[in-house]
Write a structure and sequence with these properties.
- The chain has helices spanning 2-29, 35-60, 68-85, 90-112, 117-136, 155-174, 176-186, 188-193, 198-221, 234-247, 252-268, 276-290, 301-312; strands spanning 147-148, 226-227, 314-315, 321-322.
- By secondary structure, it is mostly helical.
- The chain has a domain at 36-233: ABC transporter involved in vitamin B12 uptake, BtuC, CATH 1.10.3470.
- The strands form 2 sheets. A two-stranded antiparallel ribbon has the order 1-2. A two-stranded antiparallel ribbon has the order 3-4.
- This is Branched-chain amino acid ABC transporter permease.
- It comes from Geobacillus thermocatenulatus.
């Protein structure tokens, strides 16, 4: 019974997630959701994966990275090469995308994470631009004209990858390793003095975040038929950064909510190309003015239920309030 009470919230979340999957699968199979809404749903899920993966790097470990689009691009092109050039199954392409992006994260992470703050941001931004320029000049992957990719992304694949991303990052955050990353974010010098291997945990967070960004790249490449280096510029990195900051640094729920809301806003403003970015910017400014800590701050959605229980107050068997 005690174990059930501790894990009840987790299993309820899992059941709701699979119920949502079943409903959406039925809507897609029955044709109730047209292509526009399916594309929006897939793009929303990909953005949530990107936001969650960057949340681990910035929100949890406190490493200011603005080159996330580089790992997104590595995953997209690695998976496309596997499926289109080598004719391997989509599953192999997805796994290769994650591993390739993780290796890129390791390569850039080990030397760059000696840097802090603005200097780290500049280094990661440089990495993202190096990846984009390199792809522009590699004829094997189409160069500037891009690479045509067969559509292989389906709702089960999107849901499975999204579910795995949220599950792994949430559990990592709540583990002892996550606590170590949070201590680095709060005070790296104090964490190092307490015996925490700060370099190891910063690189680990970078590698895990890069891995899931690569997975998102594989889904993106095999859904939108064509990938071009221009899709992965520094503006894409800033879009992902906005998801994390707007949702609240340190809140996985906030990053997810912000990614969903901004994807919806951006999609439905496509009918107004002249004023789309103006309205989009106004929305961001208003939110940051009235919620400077982000939509969720450092809180998670699960904490709302804890507040509700706390508001009810503890009751003993005699029906009187108790004090913890």
């Amino acid at each position: 019974m005690a174990t059930w009470k501790r894990t009840r919230g987790f299993w309820v979340s899992v059941i709701l997630a699979f119920a949502f999957f079943a409903v959406v699968e039925w809507l897609i199979a029955s044709g109730t959701l047209n292509v526009f809404y399916v594309n929006t749903l897939f793009f929303m899920a990909i953005n949530v994966m990107l936001a969650a993966s960057l949340h681990l790097i910035i929100g949890i470990t406190g490493q200011f990275s603005i080159g996330h689009a580089g790992f997104f691009a590595v995953g997209a092109y690695a998976s496309a090469v596997m499926t289109m050039k080598l004719q391997l199954p989509f599953a192999v392409g997805v796994l290769t995308a994650g591993v390739a992006a993780a290796l890129a994260g390791l390569i850039i992470g080990v030397p760059s994470l000696r840097l802090k703050g603005d200097y780290l941001a500049i280094a990661t931004l440089g990495f993202g631009e190096i990846v984009r320029i390199a792809l522009l000049n590699i004829d094997y992957v189409g160069g500037a004209s891009g690479m045509t990719v067969t559509h292989m992304t389906t709702w089960p694949w999107v849901f499975a990858c999204l579910f795995a991303t949220i599950l792994v990052i949430a559990n990592f955050t709540n583990s002892t390793h996550g606590r170590a990353c949070i201590s680095i974010r709060e005070d790296e010098i104090a964490a190092d003095a307490m015996g925490i291997n700060t370099t190891y945990y910063k690189v680990a967070a970078f590698v895990i975040g890069s891995f899931f960004a690569g997975i998102a790249g594989a889904l993106y490449a095999h859904h939108f038929y064509i990938i071009q280096p221009s899709n992965f510029g520094f503006l894409k990195s800033f879009d992902i950064l906005i998801f994390v900051v707007l949702g609240g640094l340190g809140s996985l729920s906030g990053a997810v909510v912000a990614a969903v809301l901004l994807t919806i806003v951006s999609t439905f403003l496509q009918n107004y190309p002249e004023t789309r970015m103006i309205i989009y910017s106004i929305v961001l400014i208003l939110v940051m003015l009235y919620r400077p800590t982000g939509l969720m701050g450092t809180k998670e959605l699960s904490s709302l239920f804890k507040w509700r229980k706390a508001a009810q107050g503890g009751m003993n068997h005699g029906g009187k309030n108790t004090v913890a």
